[in-house]
Design a protein that fits this description.
Strand order of the largest sheet: 3-2-1-4-5
Low-confidence stretches: none
Shape: globular
Strand content: 15-25%
Bound molecules: 4'-phosphopantetheine
Structural class: alpha/beta
Mean pLDDT: 92
Distance between the termini: 68 Å
Largest sheet: 5 strands, parallel
Radius of gyration: 17 Å
Length: 174
Amino acid sequence: MAAGPEPNTLDDVPRIAVLPGSFDPVTLGHLSVIERAANVFDEIHVVVVHNPGKTALIPFADRVQLIQDAIAEAGIRGRITVTSWSVGLLVDYCVEVGATVIVKGLRGGVDVAYETPMAIVNRDLAAVETIFVLPDPRHQHVSSSLVRQVNSLGGDVRPYVPAAVAAFLRPDEG
Ligand code: PNS
């Protein structure tokens, strides 16, 4: 074999993953996925992405702060960046930070149907693979939209969200 630099192996390259979402608000289900991804990848970027199809409850910057607070509150360790992205395709962010993988949580069949086209498009656009992680089954039924609805009707959302989010939604309680 010709002398020269050793070929890269998977071990030479930090495995960087992006966890995108609206996170409006971040839930205990999201947190479970973040924790699992942080255990698997060398570095993760949790990215709050503007979804033009959804009307937001919580301002963009607050969503980033709440995720940071929730990660600290849960004691999740690892190289974790929390940021936002609103200027283009999600895969542009992935390329910018050297991420080759997108991680999404899967709660069931409805999520499979919703996530599959996005995963294929992101692979077509920039060869970024999507990997699905199952959240803790205790949070299988939890979604941001359910939390928004329960909160808007005066219900207690504390079983579904980190304490920082509950305090943000109901600053007078607690
Ligand atoms: O939490 P959500 O709202 O289900 O997350 C969806 C999101 C924001 C990850 C998705 O809409 C997205 O990736 N938007 C960025 C725009 C983009 O890259 N679109 C093309 C590929 S889907």
